[in-house]
Structures are given as structure tokens and as C-alpha cells.
Amino acid sequence: MEKEKQKEGRYEKRHYLALADQIDFNDQKQTKTVLVKMIWLEIILQICYQAYPFVTKYLIGNRVLKDVFVAIYLIVFTMAALHFGLTTKVFDKRVKTHRAVKVLTAVYFALLGLMVVMNIFTHSMVFKLPGHKIVSIALIALSAAICEEFLFRGILFNIFTVALRKNKYNIFWTSVICSVLFGLFHLINLFHQPLVSTIGQIIFAMALGFILSYLRILSNGIIFGIIVHFLQDCSPQVASSNTGNSNIAFVSAVYIPVSIFMMICTYLFNRQLNKK
């Protein structure tokens, strides 16, 4: 037992996990208690995230009051996630990358930059809409960006980082699990859009999940993920009943390779950590 604790302690130190500053991983009781609390936090905030659109649609008729409610909701949601989610960091210090990881990361940032520029260009039509619609679309995109990043790349990421802490590829597997769950999360859109569109959306969302997970790992925070997610969602489509993509062949041809590339990046990054 003592050898196992020493091994686990060495593992945490080698990986610079920021959560190790909040949790004594050698104390199994404390670790389990914190893990359960984070799971409950994830469940409660997921329920709140799914409930607030119902409130704004059916219980608040005035447009201005809706916008004010969403703004207040986002502030409270963010404060709760920051306070009870322990940390938005993955590591407690900067991790230096080696040549292979640096090359792949450079390619990643080139693709990310291209995606951001394309989103800004294609979504510029938003500014041609009336002012109140611009505000509405911006709030919808902002709520998705803030809530989904905290739920999937924040709290859920922390949950699996703790749960898989003894696995030497815990960062990689955490990224995979959170990205897959993020994609499957969009199954809820079946209530208001066709199955084909939803399948296309799931494939895209998984790839986006991998992209944003790697961004959280590299930036050691969540703010840049929120910005990229906001730019991705800030389009007139978010205000429609069909937010998916029915062209599954195109989506698969583009975003499945992206997912594979991101898994390779994350795996090599994690393998580099194991060598430290």
C-alpha cells in the first residue's frame, strides 16, 4: 500500500496536475468526496443549462427581460462553476513541449486560426440583422460557449482527470471521453431537428470537443476555449430550430480526420509528460 501511494505521489508530481493543489490524492477518502461533489455539480449545472431556455421561451414574454435574465444567469453560472469546480487549470506550471509536439501544435494553431477567420467571415452577416436580433444571437452563443466550456472542458474534464489519475495517459483519455460526451450531448437536439442533421452535428461537435480540449491543455485555462466556442456559435443559425448539418458525407470527410489528428496531438503531448 505504501509503495502504491509513493508511486501515485510521484505520478502527480511528474504531471504537474493543478488539481493536486486542491486535493490530496494520497487521501482516498478526500479524493472520493471531492469527486462526488464535482459529479453533483456537473449534474446540477447541466439541469440548469437545459432548463434556462424553457424559462426564457415560456415564462418570460418581454424581450428585454429575457436578455437581462440570460445575462444574470450567465454570471451566476460562471461564479458557481469557478467556485465549486476547483480550478480551470490542468497543470500548476507551464509544460515545455518537445520538437514533435511543437510541430503538431504549430499545425494545430494554423488550423485553429483558419477556423476562427472563416467563422468571422461567414458569420459577419449577423451584423446586418436588427439590433435586438444581434443581441439575442450573441447571448445564445455566449451562453453556449460559457456553459458548455465549463461543463465539458471544465468540470467534466476535472472529474475524469481525477478519476483516471492513476492512468499514465489520463490527460489523453480525459480529452477523448469529454469530446465524445460533448458530441453525444447534442442528441438532445433531436427534439427540434431531424436525425440526419443531428448526426452531422454530433460528428462536428466531437471534433470541436477535441480542438477545444487541446486548447485548454495548451493554454492551461478555459477562457480561450470560450472565445473560440463563441465565435463558432455566433451565427444566425443558432437562433433557428435546426442547428445541425445534414451533409454527413462532407462532415465526416472533414471532421473525422480532424478528430484523429487532435487525438494524435493529445496522445503525444501526454506521452511527453510521462517522460518528465
From TrEMBL:
UniProt GO molecular function: endopeptidase activity; metallopeptidase activity
One BP annotation, GO: CAAX-box protein maturation
InterPro entries from the UniProt entry: Rce1/LyrA-like_dom (IPR003675)
Domain CAAX prenyl protease 2/Lysostaphin resistance protein A-like per the UniProt entry, residue ranges: 133-233
Keyword set, alphabetical order: Hydrolase, Membrane, Metalloprotease, Protease, Transmembrane, Transmembrane helix
Chain ranges passing through the membrane: 68-86, 106-127, 134-159, 171-191, 203-228, 248-269
Ranges in a coiled coil: none
Family membership noted in the UniProt record: Belongs to the UPF0177 family.
Listed name of the protein: CPBP family intramembrane metalloprotease
Lineage: Bacteria, Bacillati, Bacillota, Bacilli, Lactobacillales
